[in-house]
Amino acid sequence: MFPCSIMDSMGILEEDLEKILMGGGLEVREFDSANEVQPVTLGKDVCYIVCAVIFNSKDEVLMVQEAKRECYGTWYLPAGRMERGESIIEALQREVKEEAGVDCQPITMLLVQEQGPQWIRFIFLADVTGGSLKTKAEADEESLQAQWWDRESHLPLRKRDILSLIDAGIKYRQNQWFPALQPVDVPCHVICQRLLLAFMASNGENSEEERVWLLLSNGKGNNVSSHPCLPVRMSGKRCPLPWSALRMVNECMSSSYDRLNVNMCGILGVQHNGRVLGKTDGICFNTLVLVKHSEEGPETSNPPTLDGHCYRWHELTNQSMRVKILQRIKEGTVLPVS
Fold first, then answer.
1. What region, left, alpha or beta, does residue 59 occupy, with left being phi > 0 and alpha being psi -120 to 50 degrees?
2. Could you tell me which of 120, 81, 169, 134 has the C-alpha nearest to residue 285?
3. 29, burial (CB in 10 Å: exposed 0-12, middle 13-18, buried 19+)
4. What is the structure's pLDDT at 227?
5. Which residues are registered as beta bridge partners of 286?
6. What's the CA gap between 54 and 125, in Å, rounded?
7. Cβ-based neighbours of 94, under 8 Å, separated by 6 or more
8. How confident is the model at residue 223 (pLDDT cuts 50, 70, 90)?
């Protein structure tokens, strides 16, 4: 007797998909192709950085003057490292308060940047909700002062990398091309990604209607899961999110990998808790990945052949779910990662 029927199993899958597409999170129970899972510890194995892009009513951006000896007197966005026991939002609000003197409320994540799990930066668009700009008289080891910058007057910058972040904030304010996204308070002990890996093809009978398949995990090894679930992959020390997705496709579709295009569309959600030191310092990124055949042919209307028995393709028959996934893919309404 199976624990649930096929219909119940598909219902669970669709509920999970709905949560992920809405920016929610799911508990991480199992990993694909992971031999030994070691929890990460903030400050030891990983470094998380938060950064705020904040505008005033004049479209000026909030800047802070650096107090650190190596970049003393230069200007940068409010940013800094997360501390143990903090959530991502708590770290953002603390850094903005310490460096700029103001309280803030995040509007959305703008971008995730990473150098493997050892260095991950979360950039937020935020609003000021209180406090006052730090003055020179309030200078301390965190910063010398804060001010609004019109982006035209000369200001010696610590690094020019923030210019693209400011541009991303301007773009989002003008056109919210993805839904506002906040981190979800779901604990995880490692850095990993849950892949919503999709294959789509035109319906031969109706060229305007596209079919969508999702890659599902059968569980680690030959242990078949009690209900269908999306693959969850560990991220290695030098294996950023896009590369990790490519490696997974290469492993399970090796016979056709050279004839595939794999596109890391972006992030649908970020799961983090961080309150139990050394046990919930990890992050799970829910990511959207598109796989397509690089060449047209009689076999390209079907998903690539899978090697082994760890995964299987599942065609979505739920019209609403299919449309939502296609919309996310075609409109690019996902959080960028670089």
1. left
2. 120
3. exposed
4. 72
5. 194, 269
6. 6
7. 83, 86
8. very low
